[in-house]
Specification:
alpha/beta; 328 residues; 8 helices; six-stranded mixed β-sheet; 8 strands; 3 domains; 14% strand
């Protein structure tokens, strides 16, 4: 209600101040329109740049036989060890049994990867977008100089809005719950840590603190897995963004705590939200290739499709966590 009152009160006040002069109103609102167009163009260019960067940076492997846990078979011509295949399989089985992980033997697939190419039209389209952004920025800059009334009005309104947002942000931050928007998994993060959070255990804070403590300057991917079903009975409103994360207050709280601690530790982080289904954790694990996967000890047995080199348990003040260590 306060936001609606503020959004309607400002235009009414401006209309009264200029005494209904349409020309003056047009000059004043030109600031907001061109500014919004500029920010929109910059945002789209940033997204497109990151997509192109991800395509270039992504690693592609030749055709190989892989198991469902992402481990490749050793080529026959590399005589790195004289142990027979059956002996290696037995050693792996013994290691997995000791770690409490069951190994699946019936899911072997052959995957052929092809290097994607950035087409010529995609490159032309990208630079046309850059040109459009530059033209809009020139128009906005010209408007700032030649229409001082619009600059004064737009700058004051934008400053008030930013001040309200800053105060709201700092209030949440002081409470240890920094607002967080979820991100995606853009590719492998060598040396990173995968912190698995769930809605069914009370040791998420232990997982968060342990992951940040062991990050050693590397990125941390916070994966929240929930079995909470999204609301399907309510009909979405027009232009409404439908995302289960927006209605999950528990996930927001844990992500906020993780963001607050990660900011203090000055480490890079990602936030991934997924619905609980078979293979959810393993798919993120295979995409990120973390050196350490931190999870609550009671949930370690649920990650059977993850095959770490070894598992180490750590007893913290907030609960017992498991480190699934992997050298890729």
């Amino acid at each position: 209600h306060y936001s609606i009152a503020l959004a309607t009160a400002i235009p009414i006040a401006v209309l009264l101040l200029v005494k209904g002069n349409i020309t003056t109103l047009g000059d004043m609102y030109a600031f907001g329109l061109l500014g919004a167009f500029t920010l929109t163009c910059l945002g789209l260019d940033l997204v497109r740049y990151r997509e192109r960067k991800a395509i270039r940076a992504k690693r592609y492997q030749p055709s190989a036989v892989q198991t469902d846990n992402g481990n490749e078979s050793l080529p026959a011509h590399e005589d790195l060890e004289t142990t027979s295949l059956s002996t290696r399989q037995q050693d792996t089985l013994n290691r997995d049994t000791f770690a409490g992980i069951s190994q699946r033997q019936d899911t072997v697939s052959t995957q052929t990867n092809q290097s994607p190419k950035i087409s010529l039209w995609s490159t032309i389209d990208f630079w046309l977008g850059i040109l459009t952004t530059a033209l809009v920025m020139i128009a906005w800059s010209t408007n700032l100089v030649y229409k001082p009334l619009a600059t004064a009005f737009g700058g004051s309104v934008a400053s008030v809005g930013m001040l309200v947002a800053y105060v709201n942000y700092m209030q949440h931050k002081r409470g240890g719950r920094t607002p967080v928007m979820i991100t995606g998994v853009e590719g492998r993060l060598p040396g990173s840590i995968l912190a698995v959070l769930t809605n069914r255990n009370g040791h998420n804070e232990a997982v968060i603190r342990t992951a940040i403590t062991n990050a050693e300057g590397h990125p941390v991917v916070f994966l929240y897995v929930t079995d909470r079903k999204p609301q399907t009975t309510r009909t979405p409103s027009m232009f409404e963004v439908v995302d289960p994360y927006l209605d999950d207050l528990q996930a927001k709280e844990y992500f906020g705590k993780a963001e607050n601690l990660a900011q203090k530790a000055k480490i890079s982080r990602r936030f991934v939200y997924r619905q609980q289904e078979p293979g959810t954790v393993s798919r993120v694990w295979q995409a990120v290739h973390p050196r350490d996967t931190v999870i609550a000890a009671e949930n370690a047995s649920e990650c059977e499709d993850i095959n770490p080199d070894r598992i180490r348990y750590e007893l913290t003040s907030s609960g017992k966590v498991a480190h699934m260590l992997k050298h890729w």
